[in-house]
Amino acid sequence: MTHIEQKQRHVLEQIAEAKRILCAIEFALHHQIPATLLITSAAPGEGKSVFASILATTAAKSGKYRVAALDLNWYRPALHRFFDLDHQHLSKTILDTDLDHLVCHCGQDSLDILTAPADYVEQAPSTDQIVPAIARLIKQANDSYDLVIIDSAAIFPTNRLMIDPVVLSGITAGVVMVVLSAATPKQQVRKAQKIMETAGANILGVVNNQWKITRKR
Ligand SMILES: Nc1ncnc2c1ncn2[C@@H]1O[C@H](COP(=O)(O)OP(=O)(O)O)[C@@H](O)[C@H]1O
Ligand SMILES: [Mg+2]
Question: 129 C-alpha to center of ligand 1: Å?
Fold first, then answer.
């Protein structure tokens, strides 16, 4: 099998898995849709943004849902890259504007994207400004879409600029945790899970990302 064929097979396998995971999420939510899903993980680089993009695309392609994917990892944004978009707005605009004027259509019907601001790291607004504005955007997303998929930061390490996924879990219907198999220490995953549970998050499930294992084969 050529390298390209292998890569294509890998992508097809991931799409098949995403369909299954979407189905599991629908059950875990008891089909209470519209719903907002927070995608997070214990550590950076575990595949949150890859998974959020594949899940959003799969849900939109199913033809059942209007989907919004929101990049709320403003410190290390990524969704714009996966959907081949530029950063669309500055932080202040995002904080002051209604969601329907902020999202962009990624070329796929039923899927809208909110990209992270371009100037966040240089000109970060305070948490007091960010949290209420984000709660408003999430509420607007819930009113306009069936599934809202939030790509967020990792739980560890914390830093003063990150939008805390633990805080976001309080304003979302369910949390999906991505774990990069064989990479993230189990204790760290358990610790992250515990923090989420203590905060009252509704953990719908864990996605086991076997990316590195697959590559080694
Ligand atoms: N299942 C996967 N298939 C292909 N590439 C992956 C997969 N999981 C992770 N990666 C790669 O690993 C890197 C980190 O993934 P990313 O989704 O950006 O992590 P996170 O958002 O958790 O920081 C990316 O460059 C991505 O291409
Ligand atoms: Mg990411």
Answer: 30
The environment of the single-atom ion ligand 2, i.e. residues with CB closer than 5 A, is: 48-49, 78
Alpha-carbon distance of 183 to 202, in angstroms, equals 25
CATH hierarchy code of domain 3-216: 3.40.50.300
Tell me which residue of 58, 106, 117 sits closest to 82, measured CA to CA.
106
Q: Compute, in degrees rounded to 10, the torsion defined by CA atoms 175, 177, 178, 181.
A: -160
> Rounded to whole angstroms, how far apart are CA atoms 116 and 114?
7
Q: What length does the chain have?
A: 217
Q: From the first residue on, what is the mean pLDDT of each consecutive set of 10 residues in the chain (217 residues)?
A: 69 86 95 96 96 95 96 97 92 97 89 96 92 97 98 96 96 96 91 97 94 56
* CB 118 within 8 Å of CB 71: no
CA 17, 18, 23, 29 torsion-angle sign? positive
Q: Which ligand is nearest to the CA of 48?
A: 1
Query: How far apart are the CA of 44 and the centre of ligand 2, in A?
Result: 7
